[in-house]
């Protein structure tokens, strides 16, 4: 509206605090009333998060990420929130965010906090904001400790503690254990539990994962989300889970490519160290180990030849449907002498994995031809003017990064000096002195990290290889080193359908450098 400034609302509900479902509506109403009373504002939109106050939930706040993206792009110039602890509950990061908003000229408005303090650069205002942020962080830490204790007790009792329902079981009624703890345990699913037993027998008899999926569909009517076969990945995930033996998984780390995790190291145990049996098992431990051995012997690595040859373009080649191409070994018909040749191909597996029709622009290319073309491109890149242009872009991006770090360092050092001057007249050991000391420690850690980042940016980085050096070094590089070198330069390689040569079908896309 004429004569007003645009402002965006940030609203967050914290389920862990027992906020009712209408907490978002209450925050919105309070803020609208405040802005209407002050006048001069037009609400342009809002960012909403519905989460808990735990440390895990902080990583899942889509609304918060979108808000900061709007601030970075310059679209959001004013933000209104109900209280400062609705934004961030880590003191150091809260102060960094407030300081960043001040530097970018973003006005902060709060229903519960002082607008003058939030938008002031004085040491007293920063100290007040830091104290509030520290109190919010302490509350979050206490809450996280309670949640971890509750999860530990639920694991030791064999109770369910959220998460997806595992294949083969479903939640049973609420019960109490001998210690008086109450919760729900898993009970065998009337269909899926028997399907797992059949899968164990099939795998031990030599069947593959696809055959298990076909059996599940034919006998039990178990299908994937699209109505087709259950994916081999999901069949394997169910069979390798320690739940098959009745164990309860606990604190299993997230999957990382190339990192092997022994799932038996992440099961719930009693205080005596014994595994917790939380549900009816599908098989005994010895049988489960035999299943794991059978699956390893018939893994996709064995079928596709991973390890038998170096798939140089793994993760780089893209199908027209947008999905990555996989390396596949295609055995050919035996010749007159009985010799069976093999053909190595990069091919899209989207239709096989996600159902027919998922990939409508499927494309494939012979692996040796594609790899040789990319290798030739790499040598040409290192022997042309493109290498010099690439080095100039890298140097320019490095200068910009150093400038940014220097600006952040100046702000952090100024804040540290202000905190030191505020701490000097305080009584050592007093509660207020401890709060200021904690804030100083966090800022000092931030300064140390920025100094390390600057040292890394200004360190003398080795230049890319010259053409002569690449020619000499290439034969000595192993497959992983060659793939790493390609990924440092190439973002992806788009493959066009058809039967033309690689020069007409492969489009090499380099990494974008700001």
TrEMBL record:
Pfam families hit by this protein: Resolvase, Zn_ribbon_recom
Key words of the record: Coiled coil
Keyword set includes Coiled coil: yes
Coiled-coil residue spans: 402-460
Matching PROSITE patterns: RECOMBINASE_DNA_BIND (PS51737), RECOMBINASES_3 (PS51736)
Residue ranges constituting the Resolvase/invertase-type recombinase catalytic domain according to the UniProt record: 6-158
Residues in Recombinase domain copies: 166-301
SMART domains given in the database record: Resolvase (SM00857)
InterPro entries reported in the protein's UniProt record: DNA_bind_recomb_sf, DNA_bind_recombinase_dom, Resolv_N, Resolvase-like_N_sf, SSR_resolvase, Zn_ribbon_recom_dom
Annotated protein name in UniProt: Recombinase family protein
């Amino acid at each position: 509206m004429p004569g007003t400034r645009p402002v965006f609302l940030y609203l967050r509900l914290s389920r862990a605090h027992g906020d009712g479902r209408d907490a978002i509506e209450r925050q919105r109403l309070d803020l609208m009333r405040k802005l209407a009373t002050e006048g001069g504002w037009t609400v342009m939109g809002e960012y909403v998060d519905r989460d808990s106050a735990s440390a895990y939930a902080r990583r899942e706040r889509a609304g918060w990420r979108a808000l900061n993206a709007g601030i970075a792009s310059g679209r959001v110039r004013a933000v209104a929130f109900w209280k400062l602890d609705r934004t961030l509950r880590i003191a150091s990061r809260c102060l960094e965010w407030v300081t960043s908003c001040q530097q970018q000229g973003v006005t902060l408005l709060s229903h519960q906090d002082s607008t003058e303090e939030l938008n002031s650069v004085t040491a007293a205002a920063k100290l007040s904001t830091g104290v509030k942020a520290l109190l919010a962080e302490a509350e979050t830490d206490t809450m996280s400790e309670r949640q971890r204790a509750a999860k530990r007790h639920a694991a030791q009792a064999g109770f369910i503690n959220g998460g997806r329902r595992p294949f083969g079981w479903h939640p049973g009624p609420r019960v109490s254990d001998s210690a008086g703890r109450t919760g729900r345990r898993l009970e065998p699913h009337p269909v899926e539990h028997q399907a797992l037993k059949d899968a164990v027998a099939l795998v031990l008899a030599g069947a593959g994962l696809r055959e298990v999926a076909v059996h599940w569909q034919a006998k039990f009517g178990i299908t994937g989300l699209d109505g087709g076969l259950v994916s081999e990945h999901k069949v394997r995930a169910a069979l390798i889970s320690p739940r098959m033996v009745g164990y309860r998984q606990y604190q299993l780390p997230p999957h990382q490519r190339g990192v092997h995790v022994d799932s038996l190291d992440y099961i719930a145990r009693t205080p005596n160290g014994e595994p917790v049996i939380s549900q009816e098992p599908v098989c005994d431990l010895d049988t489960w180990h035999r299943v794991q051995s059978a699956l390893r012997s018939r893994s996709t690595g064995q079928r596709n030849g991973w390890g038998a040859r170096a798939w140089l373009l793994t993760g780089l080649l893209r199908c027209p449907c947008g999905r990555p191409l996989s390396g596949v070994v295609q055995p050919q018909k035996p010749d007159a002498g009985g010799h069976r040749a093999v053909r190595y191909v990069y091919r899209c597996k989207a239709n096989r994995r996600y159902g027919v029709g998922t990939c409508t622009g499927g494309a494939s290319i012979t692996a040796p031809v594609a790899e040789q073309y990319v290798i030739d491109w790499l040598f040409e890149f290192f022997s042309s003017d493109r290498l010099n242009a690439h080095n100039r872009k890298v140097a320019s991006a490095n200068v910009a990064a150093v400038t940014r770090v220097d600006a952040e360092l100046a702000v952090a050092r100024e804040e540290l000096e202000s905190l030191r001057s505020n701490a000097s007249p305080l009584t050592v050991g007093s509660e207020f002195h401890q709060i200021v000391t904690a804030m100083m420690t966090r800022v000092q850690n931030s300064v140390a990290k920025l100094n390390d980042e600057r040292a890394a940016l200004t360190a003398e980085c080795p230049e890319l290889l010259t053409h002569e050096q690449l020619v000499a070094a290439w034969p000595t590089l192993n497959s992983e080193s060659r793939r790493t070198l390609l990924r440092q330069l190439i973002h992806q390689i788009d493959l066009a359908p058809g039967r033309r040569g690689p020069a007409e079908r492969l489009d090499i896309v380099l990494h974008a450098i700001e």
